Amino acid sequence: MGVDVARRGFFAELNYQAQQAEKRRRQQVAAAYRAQAAAQREAERARKASDRAVASAARASAAQRAEAQKLAAQMQLEAWAAEVNALNADLAQVYADVDGLLASTLEVDDYVDLEALKITSVEHPPFDPGPLSVPVPPMPQLVYPPEPVYQEPEAPKGLSATFGGRKRHEEAVLATRAAFETAHRGWHEHCTRMHADHMAEFERRRRADQDRLQRLNAAQAAYQHQCRQRETDAEAHNQKVSRFINDLAFDVESAIQDYVGVVLSNSVYPDAFPVSFEHGFDIGSRELVLRVTVPGPDAVPSVKEYRYVRAKDEIVTSALPLKQQKDRYAGAVWQVTLRTLHEIFESDRAGKIRSIALVVSAGRTAPATGLPEEVPLAVVAADRETFLTFDLANVVPHATLTYLGAALSKSPFDLVPADGAGVRVRGR
């Protein structure tokens, strides 16, 4: 059981991401989406312009303040108007999404090409060694200070040599030689220290570069391992997909059930009307039993429009008539019911599923017990042969479900349960 869940989750999530991106791309090119985005951009622009005008009025001199405040007030009104337009555009988009639940899926082929789930080429990120690619700077050439040169004092000449000059010269020579020997000894010791420091730094840099090269080699080895792992994972993934395709071709019950999971995971609903699924398939009867959970009536906005009231300096709402709220929610439930049947049958090109027994429910807190409960709003069974003859682009969903013999809630908005006892596939 755990293996089946893991396998189903793997394929469902993989294809879900790709299909969700595609459906979002479709949404972004829709006119309603563009209008919504434009209104939001205009609201942001107007808000910034208003903020600038208010700031300018605060900085203005007394003579200029009246005119600046007037401009700021005008810009504030424009900001409120843009905000109202943005809110109404959002609202229109939500209503368009909810009202078009069935139409949106008719534009998409729900068949899942499992071969397309295979990884045909593995992309590896380039190897980035970072600082490891930079060698340790080489040692600069060692330059010693100039060696001291002994320069003997000049010997006295003439009379200076006769009157004690020779003795003074000898003393000067001794002093000069002693100073030279001291300087030369200091120079030699200094050069010795320089050489020792140079060799120590050379050895430090050599070891640092050796360590860098070792870490670079380790990083390259790790990168190669990651590349090989990606290749291995891709191969294992493709083998898993191939087994899935093979099992599906040979009518393995779990594979058919997994494929339905992939299809249902691709069914991306708007944020305002999220839907979840539970299903099970029986190979003996070739019937898919499916439970769909839709959000409660409070998920759909009850606002008719937003407007700015200058006297209150605030945005207020007007309520959508209750009948329109009820009609929209009931329409959404009927559309989800037909949409689910359509997506399963359309995706099953091989005809492995002959019939679907479907229950569409909404959750609530039971008034009698205070506990969570699921309220069935639509219970229907449909056979493949009959359903695929319908032109869903031209049907009235409630009429189609009634034609199929479905049990339908008399008031989904009020969460009145449908009586689904005895509902089976039409024509059996």
Structure description:
- Helix 1 runs parallel beside helix 6 (253-266), helix 5 packs across helix 6 and helix 7 packs across helix 9.
- The protein has a five-stranded mixed beta sheet with strand order 1-2-5-6-7. The chain has a two-stranded antiparallel ribbon with strand order 3-4.
- The chain has helices at residues 2-28, 31-59, 62-99, 101-106, 159-249, 253-266, 322-347, 384-387, 397-403; strands at 276-282, 287-294, 303-309, 314-319, 355-365, 372-383, 407-408.
- The chain contains nine helices and seven strands, in the order ααααααββββαββααβ.
- The model is unreliable at 1-5 (pLDDT under 50).
Q: Strand content of the residues, in percent?
A: 5-15%
- Rounded to the nearest angstrom, the radius of gyration is 42 Å
Q: Kindly state the number of beta strands.
A: 7
Number of helices: 9
The share of residues in helices is 55-70%
Largest sheet: 5 strands, mixed
* Nearest-integer average pLDDT: 85
| Element order: H for helix, E for strand | HHHHHHEEEEHEEHHE
Structural class: alpha+beta
Anisotropy-based shape: elongated
Structural descriptors:
about 425 residues; 5-stranded mixed β-sheet; two-stranded antiparallel sheet; about 55% helix; elongated; disordered N terminus
